[in-house]
Model the fold of this input.
Amino acid sequence: MAVGPLLGLALALAGCGGEPAAEAPRPVLVVHPEAGGDAAGLSLAGEVRAREESPLAFRVGGKLVRRVVDVGDRVRRGQLLAELDPGDLALQAQAAQAELVAAEGQLQRARADRERYAALADEQLVSRSARDAQEAAYAAALGQARAARANLDAARNQVAYSQLRAPADGVIAARQAEAGQVVAAGQPVFTLAANGPREVAIALPESRIHAFAVGRPAQVELWNEQGRRLPGRIHEIAPAADPVTRTYAARVALQPGSDVELGQSARVHFQPADNDAPVLAVPLAALQRSDAGGTAVWVVDPRSHALHLQPVEAGPYGEDRVPILRGLSPGDWIVAAGGHLLREGQVVRPLDRDNRPLPAAPGKQ
Done:
């Protein structure tokens, strides 16, 4: 029996039971974080709003019987907007009118009695105490007449309050009630955006709130006019953060005469201030989900080419990049794409955008 074929078969079987071949390093695209630009947290989305937005409401309660205007209508100061049923208010005014007539009748009688008792007192035909009593009765009747007249004026005002009129020129921005609805005093029925200066409402990130202040210049770019930027300045910043979004509401005032319409989408660009800390930006595709549920990126060790999932704090997302407010250094090499296929500690073959291998740093074993 030939020994050669058997020996070859045994060697082949021994080879099959050995250690598996080592995994070849996976090639990955790596880049350095970039600094500056709008994607560095200085570009925020917003909406054009009026500087003065007033909720309009009736000063009395009642049933809304007529609504004259609708959302988007332009109105003038004093223009009728809506009416309540004035029936009950008119009856109250009539009752106040009747009370005034009765009070004036009592006043006339008290005046006549006072004059008569004054003449009798001069002739010493009545006592002084009787004359003083008539003077007191006259003063009381005079006070009742004045109170009745004031009640009538108030009742007439109530009737007038059943009509809601525009306090200024502007545009009806919102409607909160319909005809047939019973509304309470002070319940908003319309929202009026008054004519005048326009502003852009934005939300400032909590992590960078100290970089913004009232008066800081900005540039506003309308969504439908990209490339054209209007000058503006921060007009106001909310003193407290929103409890849900953890952002600070702010308004950027546009210069008078800016050709903008209410509700337009806009983007507000801020140039970096002298005291702004440098902000780095990475490609959107570089972002990964960390083990703790936050945001992270894959960082390549320049010596061992091993991967580490580095947690970071991201700012407002741009079109293709996102600012990293905390967690990265300018010299870090990060994986720009394909991070979902990688794992912690994996050794990779990093390549730059020109497909050149990243040389190992001194000290690589």
User: Anything to note?
Assistant: The CA atoms of residues 26 and 341 lie 10 Å apart. The chain has four domains: 26-40+279-351, 43-51+196-269, 59-81+163-192, 87-160.
